[in-house]
From TrEMBL:
CDD domains hit by this protein: FosA (cd07244)
Alphabetic keyword roster: Metal-binding, Transferase
GO molecular function: glutathione transferase activity; metal ion binding
EC class name: transferase
Record's keyword annotation contains Magnesium: no
Cross-referenced InterPro entries: Fosfomycin_Res_Enzymes, Glyas_Bleomycin-R_OHBP_Dase, Glyas_Fos-R_dOase_dom, VOC_core
Name the UniProt record assigns to this protein: Fosfomycin resistance glutathione transferase
Stretches assigned to the VOC domain: 4-115
Listed EC numbers: 2.5.1.18
Length: 138
Protein backbone atom coordinates (compact mmCIF):
# COMPACT_ATOMS: atom_id res chain seq x y z
CA UNK A 1 0.00 0.00 0.00
CA UNK A 2 1.07 3.56 -0.62
CA UNK A 3 2.14 5.41 2.50
CA UNK A 4 2.58 8.98 1.23
CA UNK A 5 4.35 11.15 -1.28
CA UNK A 6 7.92 9.96 -1.81
CA UNK A 7 9.52 12.85 -3.66
CA UNK A 8 9.03 15.50 -6.36
CA UNK A 9 11.40 15.73 -9.31
CA UNK A 10 11.38 18.92 -11.34
CA UNK A 11 13.06 19.12 -14.73
CA UNK A 12 15.12 22.33 -14.88
CA UNK A 13 16.92 24.08 -17.72
CA UNK A 14 19.59 25.82 -15.61
CA UNK A 15 20.60 23.87 -12.51
CA UNK A 16 22.57 26.69 -10.87
CA UNK A 17 19.71 29.16 -11.27
CA UNK A 18 17.11 26.72 -9.96
CA UNK A 19 19.30 25.60 -7.08
CA UNK A 20 19.78 29.23 -6.04
CA UNK A 21 16.02 29.86 -6.24
CA UNK A 22 15.00 26.89 -4.11
CA UNK A 23 17.90 27.34 -1.66
CA UNK A 24 18.00 31.13 -1.31
CA UNK A 25 14.45 32.31 -2.03
CA UNK A 26 12.36 29.38 -0.77
CA UNK A 27 15.05 28.32 1.75
CA UNK A 28 14.99 24.57 1.19
CA UNK A 29 17.98 22.74 2.69
CA UNK A 30 20.49 21.42 0.13
CA UNK A 31 21.25 17.76 0.84
CA UNK A 32 23.40 16.89 -2.20
CA UNK A 33 24.34 18.18 -5.62
CA UNK A 34 25.93 16.61 -8.69
CA UNK A 35 26.66 17.64 -12.26
CA UNK A 36 23.07 17.23 -13.44
CA UNK A 37 20.99 17.54 -10.31
CA UNK A 38 20.41 18.35 -6.68
CA UNK A 39 18.50 16.98 -3.71
CA UNK A 40 16.85 19.49 -1.40
CA UNK A 41 14.58 19.01 1.59
CA UNK A 42 11.97 20.44 3.89
CA UNK A 43 10.47 18.44 6.74
CA UNK A 44 8.42 15.78 4.99
CA UNK A 45 9.52 16.77 1.46
CA UNK A 46 12.29 15.46 -0.75
CA UNK A 47 12.75 17.59 -3.87
CA UNK A 48 14.98 16.60 -6.77
CA UNK A 49 16.09 19.12 -9.39
CA UNK A 50 17.14 17.33 -12.58
CA UNK A 51 18.86 19.09 -15.46
CA UNK A 52 16.88 18.47 -18.66
CA UNK A 53 17.85 20.12 -21.94
CA UNK A 54 14.27 19.70 -23.20
CA UNK A 55 12.79 21.86 -20.43
CA UNK A 56 11.77 25.42 -21.26
CA UNK A 57 10.67 28.15 -18.89
CA UNK A 58 7.11 28.14 -20.22
CA UNK A 59 4.34 27.60 -17.69
CA UNK A 60 2.15 24.62 -18.50
CA UNK A 61 -0.99 26.78 -18.58
CA UNK A 62 -3.26 24.49 -16.57
CA UNK A 63 -3.93 24.29 -12.85
CA UNK A 64 -1.23 21.67 -12.17
CA UNK A 65 0.98 23.05 -9.41
CA UNK A 66 2.99 22.21 -6.31
CA UNK A 67 2.00 23.82 -3.01
CA UNK A 68 4.20 24.39 0.02
CA UNK A 69 2.80 24.94 3.52
CA UNK A 70 3.76 27.77 5.82
CA UNK A 71 2.40 29.53 8.88
CA UNK A 72 0.17 32.59 8.74
CA UNK A 73 2.95 34.59 10.46
CA UNK A 74 5.51 33.58 7.82
CA UNK A 75 3.20 34.15 4.83
CA UNK A 76 3.71 37.94 4.35
CA UNK A 77 7.48 37.60 4.88
CA UNK A 78 7.83 34.95 2.18
CA UNK A 79 5.51 36.75 -0.25
CA UNK A 80 7.64 39.88 0.14
CA UNK A 81 10.82 37.81 -0.48
CA UNK A 82 9.24 36.31 -3.61
CA UNK A 83 8.21 39.71 -4.91
CA UNK A 84 11.71 41.07 -4.20
CA UNK A 85 13.07 38.18 -6.28
CA UNK A 86 10.78 39.31 -9.14
CA UNK A 87 8.91 36.03 -9.41
CA UNK A 88 5.96 35.99 -11.76
CA UNK A 89 2.55 35.49 -10.16
CA UNK A 90 0.41 33.12 -12.26
CA UNK A 91 -2.93 33.16 -10.45
CA UNK A 92 -4.86 35.07 -7.81
CA UNK A 93 -6.02 33.24 -4.71
CA UNK A 94 -9.64 32.11 -4.99
CA UNK A 95 -9.87 29.64 -2.13
CA UNK A 96 -9.78 29.35 1.64
CA UNK A 97 -6.53 30.29 3.35
CA UNK A 98 -3.87 32.73 2.29
CA UNK A 99 -2.12 31.63 -0.91
CA UNK A 100 0.39 33.11 -3.32
CA UNK A 101 0.78 31.42 -6.72
CA UNK A 102 4.10 31.96 -8.53
CA UNK A 103 6.46 30.48 -11.11
CA UNK A 104 9.92 29.12 -10.45
CA UNK A 105 12.73 29.96 -12.93
CA UNK A 106 11.62 27.13 -15.25
CA UNK A 107 7.94 27.99 -15.21
CA UNK A 108 6.87 25.31 -12.70
CA UNK A 109 3.67 26.54 -11.13
CA UNK A 110 4.10 26.78 -7.36
CA UNK A 111 1.99 27.95 -4.45
CA UNK A 112 2.62 28.84 -0.82
CA UNK A 113 -0.50 28.17 1.24
CA UNK A 114 -1.63 28.75 4.80
CA UNK A 115 -3.98 25.95 5.80
CA UNK A 116 -4.40 22.23 5.30
CA UNK A 117 -6.93 19.71 4.06
CA UNK A 118 -8.97 19.98 7.28
CA UNK A 119 -9.32 23.76 6.98
CA UNK A 120 -10.18 23.45 3.27
CA UNK A 121 -12.88 20.87 3.96
CA UNK A 122 -14.33 22.98 6.76
CA UNK A 123 -14.55 25.98 4.42
CA UNK A 124 -16.10 23.80 1.71
CA UNK A 125 -18.73 22.53 4.14
CA UNK A 126 -19.70 26.18 4.66
CA UNK A 127 -19.62 27.01 0.94
CA UNK A 128 -19.41 23.85 -1.19
CA UNK A 129 -18.20 23.77 -4.78
CA UNK A 130 -20.82 22.90 -7.41
CA UNK A 131 -21.77 19.24 -7.09
CA UNK A 132 -19.55 18.69 -4.04
CA UNK A 133 -20.21 15.66 -1.83
CA UNK A 134 -18.54 14.76 1.45
CA UNK A 135 -17.83 11.17 2.43
CA UNK A 136 -17.52 11.39 6.20
CA UNK A 137 -19.09 13.31 9.05
CA UNK A 138 -17.52 16.68 10.01
Amino acid sequence: MLTGLNHLTLAVSDLSRSLAFYRDVLQLRVEATWDNGAYLALPGLWLCLSLDSKRSAQACGDYTHYAFSLSAADFPVLVQRLKAADVQQWRDNRSEGASFYFLDPDGHQLEVHVGDLASRLAACRQKPYAGMRFYDAP
